[in-house]
Amino acid sequence: MQEAAGVFERAGSALRYRMAGPGDGPVVVLGAGRWLDHRMWDPQLPELWAAGYRTLTWELPSPRPGDRHARWRKLLARKESAPSPDAVPDVSVPVESVPIDHVRTYPTPVVRENLTVRGLAEALLELADRLRAHRQLALVGHSLGGQVAQEAAFLRPERVAGLVVVAAGCLTLPPRLGAMFRTVPAHRWAKLASLAFASRSDARIRHEAARAAGVDAATQTHAYTAMEHLDKSRLTQVWRAGVTSAHPEPDYRIDQPLLLVRGEFDRTSRLGRQAKRWLDRDPRAEYEVLDRAGYLANLDNPRAFNRVLLEFLTARHPVPRTRRRGHRAG
């Protein structure tokens, strides 16, 4: 099994990634949900590897402890030694690889990006190219990760074999006639997002988000643990990126196979309210509601989630038989 991990940055959008699984297997990209990390996919990875798939998981890096004000120090230093107006700064960072054993201690950059779903999608596509994942990708994403997956398919549909969107609304559906705020521009949504968190402490935000994450106590604990290192500024930034990501496209259709997945007790995402319109618009869309599961359906009911995920992948993004036999023989 080939393994690599690192941090990739493209024009201010940073991704922390981990790639593992059979070296010649079809690539499945798994994007972490809002405020979560790669560990949310732990119940899925062994089954994907055993089925012959190679996985690329990604998440947002966060500042190291004690570096929360480094961005402002860097801005002040930049003012003192400002480059000439004609200078074009090179902010790209080459893909780096480290042993998988060191993933949890790999140093992450100070977060300084202008976080947007489109920027993350562009970074993800370039990362896949840099990692030489040249064949088509199956994109799986939860919440923010599902939004990034949709945007990647919108930008480069030829790279996408199929989409699995978990607990995320549709970015491109036009609003219903008479819907409130249908004309609110993105910068107004950004202000509203900041105001929504203004009177709440980061501890309260984490507590409320963890309670809404799932029906199982272990799922709620997992969500809280993933958010422990995020301060209020980062929590707000990520939430704002999600709520400002929609761009209605009346004539757009997702031509790739599409699987929408939602837990029956999910009250957080917009997927339940949008599923019927989404299915009516995109002819290749399927919809699964998992029993005994909430917002983090893949953690609340991993057995059911793994079943529908692998059924979709084997039908829409199959492992070639020669590779499958070779993998099992190995």
From TrEMBL:
Stated name of the protein: Pimeloyl-ACP methyl ester carboxylesterase
Species of origin: Actinopolymorpha cephalotaxi
Signal peptide span: none
Gene Ontology MF term list: catalytic activity
Pfam hit, one: Abhydrolase_6
SUPFAM superfamilies found in the cross-reference section: alpha/beta-Hydrolases (SSF53474)
Domain AB hydrolase-1: 28-307
Superkingdom, natural source: Bacteria
